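User: Hey, my collaborator sent me this sequence without any context and asked if I could get a structure. I don't really work with proteins. Can you help?
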Amino acid sequence: MQEIVNFSNLSRVEIKHRLDKLNIRLTVDEAIKIQENILNRPPTLTELVLLSIEGSEHCSYKSSRIHLKQFITNSPDVILGAKEDAGVVAIAKDNSGRRYCVVVSHESHNHPSQLVPYEGAATGVGGNVRDVACMGAEVVALLDGLRFGDINSSKTQWIHEGVVSGIGGYGNPLGIPNIGGDLYYDAGYNDNCLVTIVTIGIVREDQIIHSFAPKKANNFDLILVGKPTDNSGFGGASFASLELEDTKKIQNKGAVQEPNAFLERHLLKASYSLFKISKKKLINKVGFKDLGAGGLACASVELADAADYGAEIWLDEVHTSMPNLHPSVILCSETQERFLWVAPPTITPIILDHYNKTFDLPEISNLAQAKVVGKIRDDKQYIVYHNQKKIVDIPANQVTKGFIYNRPIKVQKQNIYNPDFPEPNDYHQTFLQILAHENIASREAVFETYDKQVQGRTFIEAGQADAGLICPFNSDDFPKEIQQVGLAITTDHNPGYGKINPYWSGVNAVAEAIRNVVAIGAIPIAITDCLCFGNPEKPEQMWEFVEATKGVSEACKNIHLKEYPTNPIPIVAGNVSFYNETIKGSIPASPIVSCIGKLKNYHKAITKDFKKNKFENNNDWGA
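Assistant: No problem. I've predicted the 3D structure and written it out in structure-token form, which is a compact way to encode the shape of the chain:
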């Protein structure tokens, strides 16, 4: 029997009580809109859960979408802007004219890391890596931007230790080098740390796999690959769209996923192997997507709707590791280490055999496997069955579009920062105190936790220069003429600026990231951003977001690409993280920016250490 949630004849107070009792993170107006405008009938409980997740800030960008439109996301070298799971930018061309690309994703995992630091940070790495891999790319590098509270707080020290261990504990087993990042301590992050991850991959342009169903995909299979579904991470997207409350910490821990880095490593190895087959047989016939926020539901409906299709899901076919899971959990749980393929039935056996037999997934991890769990429909409906009964029946585009808000803003009084420092009595001692400050001191204790040289591509690692540098094509797997190409990357933001003026915080984050890439001799080619702010329902917090976003946008528009002087720096990936706030207040405005740069010859990169010999008179710096 279907569980129907009927809001008819209920007062607004009664609707709010019903939503709270069901732990559905919708407003009263949103619930009414679902029943009266989207469905024109009372929703099932599973439909309500699905629409609450797809309509969350985390999935639908409902408060930020209208402001993100100001970003320039294209340039002559941008293959794919901020449209799919990761951005793609060309950085090299072989003698046959084929372009080789960097694939980049920039995401946050803030609330989970505040509550369960190790697992929260680890799964942040895992999800970000899958976002890049599902574009058909080989993952070659990681960076992390971290913001913690007062360093003297024992809670901060616990969170710091857990987060750094989680990033290393997941990234190291995957065999992916961590080549850079940044770290700040500030009391403004005492109750809401920030954990942002940048992941880099490489792929040839004609071998990109897209996160949508291919053409003529009616009746194509949906193939779920990886860990069996459980209840971990259920409601994670909605949880990331709420302020943290001390009274709900135990309850919210269930919204944090559980990591298994060794299973993900095996899945990556299997998928890379399948990519090699796809170069010849599958490339234009399949779609591939990570199961992140919203789990199977969001992955399947987004794969379908992005190609103007619908989809059908059979929950009885989904492999699970727990008995008697509610259908909404099976559909929307954010269980880690999972992908979803869309493929024609003629190719489905190849994919199933590849994961289940060639790479022996069921033997590698208990109950893990590849399995057909649904199909693409050409009627544009999103339909879900459980126990052979239809429990979801919604137009796919109504699921994906979520809600859109133009939130009111309230201009805050800007801080006037005119410090009046007394003349130091002892400059030597003052200098030593500055060097010892937690935001100036060496980060060696952090980056030495990470594997920085695995894969043999790292040329400049964390701590050696203002940006990390890898040589992504330095093997005979690639044409000789591109093997010297270098890829520089950094991530930057200073919370001090955020406390003074959010607009200039955005401007300076872009400028600092670009300066750090230029400082090693590279040419900036693209930007990513991770925009972390407080509660957008509060006009003063929404103002901070609007101002900082404007600062990021205007800085990019006014710093032009060297090779294309009329083109601004494009923003090719990123995310928005709202509700980084507790009853004690919001975090400082935190637009965290990453910059990607390229060098023609990575051997000519510039490090910050003194050199023994004078620089020779040579105008070819290799940039």
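In plain terms: Residues 236-241, 250-254 have pLDDT under 50 and may be disordered. You can pass these tokens on to your collaborator as they are.
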